[in-house]
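Worked Example 4.2. Consider the chain below.
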Amino acid sequence: MFKRLTLATTAALLIVAPSAHATIGDVFYIDLENHNATQPSSYTGTQAIYGNPAAPFINSLITPGNPNAQYVSYATHYNNVVATTLAPSVGNPTGSTIPAQTVHPSEPNYLWQEAGATDEVGNDNAPYTAGNIQTTPNLSGLLQAKGISWKSYQEDTDLLNTSGQNFNGAGGTITSNVAAASQYEVPLTNFSGASAAYTNPYNGSDQYNFATKHDGQLFFTDTNGGDNPTSSNVEASHYAPLQQLSTDLANNTVGAYNLITPDQYNDMHTALSTNFTYDGVTYLAGTDAEQIALGDNFLSKIVPLIEASKAFQNNGEIVIWNDEDEGDTAATDSQFSGVEIVISKLAKGNAYTNDVSFNHSSDLLTLQEIFGLTGTPLGGAAGATSLQSLYQAGAIPEPGTWALMLMGIGGLGAGLRIARRKQMAAIA
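Applying the procedure from the previous section yields the following structure tokens:
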């Protein structure tokens, strides 16, 4: 009898022990554009970010001993995804094989961020154009189905025009005034320009530039509500202007998963038509150095804002991610590295890095592990290398750990729940 009790007790301890580890809480992804972290000297199309004086904040994050690097781990070998097949889709139900190639342009990479595949999209068109709408399983859709909250913060969206309408769909003259939450929309159209009634809160210019291609969530029917630009926006509660982020951080009402999309001036995609002064240096309009400085400036403001929040302090994480390498091919992919910086109290910290090769599939797999969505790895996440080596032990549950925890919940019959605020409405 004693042995039976001992074995049962031991089994129970093994089942619930993983919950004793601190695990990643709320997740914030900040997406950047079109610049390599490192690159071969032979490529001169754009400047690399690491070691670049136009990016002092990013470089402080990856410098051991710098206070900004305290909670930072980063990938030294973060390569572009190389695709060899097209996923099955409408019109191509079995998929097809293509020559090995790195994924370009931007939009297919954002689809990969959500679904682990390009879903045969090879352009940057807005949703509902050229068939660019997807029905395949995706990260945010799985979160939604499991009752795990997600939010999408988009810069330049949900601002009022001078007539008091949401500029997203109404157009007119954009202003700096944010629409009421009841007016928020799923932003399904691109828009850019300049307006004397608008001032960007990060770079001080009067220029705006929102691109749907930089948010993969907008292309899936289960995360944009199956809407088209003229229908009701039933998923609008997930989307908000970037101005809403500071309020949600202060009120601790952010999502378990949060996607932050800067506009094309603040994500390093496009330079302003005016000079920009940052960190005591004036960068000339239209230059690549200005693009980098604009993005670095944005990060230097948004990252500390998140770090000061309860969501981050409660073992949350920030991931600085960029969509694709520039100038690479399948044959030269290993010579280029993109930006992948993890900031969390559960990262190994002090600008830790290693020689492990990662790509967008690694992020997707890791997010599925964080949120317990490991039953069906999405697309390229199946067989990918997780980012676990960048974190402290136990920060990201192994797939087997989730199985044990679920089994323990059912077996003990005590209604035990995973202690993850807001992330699971019911885990069993």
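The chain is about 25% helix and 15% strand. Residues 57 and 299 are 7 Å apart (CA to CA). Compare this with Example 4.1 before moving on.
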